[in-house]
Structure formats: structure tokens, C-alpha cells
Here is the input.
Amino acid sequence: MENSYYNPADLAKFGNVTEFQPEMGRKFFDYYGEVFKEGALTEREKALIALAVAHAVQCPYCIDAYSTDCLQKGADETQMMEAVHVAAAIKGGAALVHGVQMMNKVKELSM
Amino acid sequence: MASTVKSLKNQHHQFADPFYQLQVLQQPVKQGETFPAFAEQLLEHGLYPLQPTGTTILQVNVGKMCNQTCKHCHVDAGPDRKEIMTRETMQHCLAALDNSPQITTVDLTGGAPEMNPDFRWFVQEICKRGRQVIVRCNLTIILANKKYYNLPEFFKEHRVHIVSSLPYFQASRTDAQRGDGVFEKSIKALLMLNEAGYGQENSGLMLDLVYNPSGAFLPSGQKSLEAEFKRRLKNGYGIEFNNLFCITNLPISRYLDYLVNSGNYQNYMQKLVDAFNPAAANNVMCRNTLSVGWDGYLYDCDFNQMLELKVERDRPQHINQFNIKQLDDRNIVLNQHCYGCTAGAGSSCGGETVK
Here is the structure.
């Protein structure tokens, strides 16, 4: 094993996951390629969504890949940071909305 | 725009030396490993030796003098560069045109081509010969001195096709690459060109913009980026233009210096190599374009010119020996920087090469 769980060089080896299961791997990458093509959303919008999700799932590979991809597709720094704030707001909001559950329980148990 | 930044040449910088640049491009990147030779990639795809499909464009670099000193410039141009094409060399270019009716377009570049004292005469002479003129105008030159203020009208009079660099629709990335204040002046110059009719529907006056990344990343999605540029420039400044060309930065001169000194060289080259696209390789611009240096020497492209890689040795070397038949029957000189033109959707002076 490497002496670090995350090695930047491993990002370029992503495609190698087909080595242990070719059929599923190929299907995944075909699907992946299709998802990021221009459709109802532009490629730049999709890259910004991916960047936000990358932060939400805290994947260093994805942050590396989609920071570059956003730059390549012409997104500006403000758009990229706003995308990260969207992720942060949803992550924070998701924690905070459970406060309602806590309040429900507290009220249930309190006199 | 007064610039105090010296060119690499006048800093006596090692990256001003084409031989040193070629050494860097060919040296092992780690433990004896080198990037695959570009020529071998072409061989693998049945494209070697790479030969012209027929020259229709003469790209003439009329000098390295420029009012800007852009950080990525492959010419290492700037106010301190004195290499300027003489009228005598221009006359050889005109004679070449007279003998080569298949050349329909003359693409003038520099430096800032407008700074050559014979620039306007040269444009007029080319137009008299019924050829389309493209000028690679850096925009700020129009505002650099009173004598240039009427350039938009001069361009209009000669139906010059304008191609101008604007690396981003915001000041931050534009100025980071091209110098402080360049974005604001570029916007003013674009408005002047629009006022003259450039980029306006049905005017027939073509104004194209060039996007090249301000950093160690590749361009992607020319069509989508064009739509974004159009939206931002129209909404923000009322500017209109025709097409956006995405151009990849090639790893030579100042950009190579930037890549090496920022620690991005290896990853950038790897990206170019990984993105090698045979379809883009098939459409590279050196197959229909010949490049003339300020001193009249002939090259396969402007990048080879800066690396001093002249056209194949047993072919005419100078514009005063121009023979299109012999030149169209040549092998194009290749090196590792050529990966820049074949990555992804390809890159040329007209943008992507794979539609």
C-alpha cells in the first residue's frame, strides 16, 4: 500500500478500475461521458455542479479534476466559489434542518 | 501602453534560447522517462511524414516589436524587441503572392504588426492583389498612440479581417496574462471597432476574438465558451463580435518559462500528450499555411519560427526563393511542442480544428 490514502497520481489511473470488472467499469465510463455532454445544461454548468458535489462528498480527486475542468470550460472564480457555497449551504442546511427533529424530541420529553 | 517588463531576450534569459527550449522539451521528465516523440504518434496513426495539403495562407510575422509584454507570449515580443520586417522583404512577399494565386489569404502577425512603419503600405499592396488580409490586432495598440486611433477606419477601408486576443471576459484573468489595464483598453478598442461596423450583423467586417487560457490548463468547448463570451461582453459592455477561437498555449518561450517555474510543466505536457487526437493532427494549420519570419526566412508555423526550426532543409529557405510547388512538396518539421496543436479538439490560429 501507499503511505498515503490519497495520491494525486491515482486520479489518472481512474480508468484502471475496469481491470477488475471490465463490463461494469466500461458501462460506468460510458454513462459518465454521456452525463457530462452538453444537453439541457451546458458543459460549464455541469462542471460547476460537479465541483459543488465534489466538495459535498469531500473527494480530493474530484476537487482537483473539476477545478481544472471549470477553468477549462471558462467558469470564473466567483462562479466556482458560489458553487462551493451552494454545497456548503446544503451540507450546513442538512445538518441544521435536523435541529427540528431535535426540537421535536426535546418537546416530546419535556414537561 | 508603456511596459517596463523586459523580454526574455533582453534579460539574457535561458528560455530566450530556442536550442535550450528544445532541450527542455526533449529531456526525461522522471527516471529516464520521456514523453513519446510527437513524430512517433503521427507514425502510429498513418500521418507521418506530415505534409501540406496545399498552401492557401501566408502568415507573415512583420516584427517582434509590441506595446505589450504578455506573460504567455510565444514570440517573446515587447517594446524592447527591435526585429522589424523591411519593405524589401515585404516586396519579396508580394512577389511570392504574384506567383502563387492559390494563396488567398495573408495573415499578418507580430508583435503588434501595426507598429511596423510599412504596415499600412503592405496591407494596401496585398489588397491590390485581391487577397484577404487578416490582422492579429492586440486591441490596445489602437489606443497606444494618436497615430493609431484611425486604425479601425483603415481596417474597414481595406476589409481587413480582425482577429484579437481577449483571454477572458473579465479584467482579472486578462490582465494577469496581458498586463495591468489591458482589459479596460481592450474593451475601449472593441467598442471603436464595433463603431466602425466590425462584428456587426450584415457589415461583412469580421471581428473574431481569441481565447487562450490564463494558466496551466487547456481550453475546452469553443462553441459553449463563444456563447458565454457573447453574453458577457454584450450585457457588460455592449460589445459584439463574430467568432471566438480557442487556442491552446504551446509550451515554448515565455509560456514554457512559466510552466517550468510554476512547477506545472510535467502535468501540462502530460495533458497535451494524453489528449492527442489524430483527427486534430490531420487538420493542423501547418498543412495549409506557410510562415514568414521578420527577416524573410520560411517556417512551417509561427511556433517553429520562434524555435528557429526552418522548413525542411532541401526546400526554399527564404521568401526571396519562394516556390510554392517545391514548398508544398515538403515534410513538415515536427517537435514536442506540436502536441499543443493536436490536443483535444485541436488548436490553430483559427481555433479548434475538429468540428
Q: What stands out?
A: The first helix of chain A runs from residue 22 to 35. Chain A touches chain B through 13 residues (CB under 8 Å). Chain A has two domains: 10-39, 44-111. Chain A has four helices and no strands.
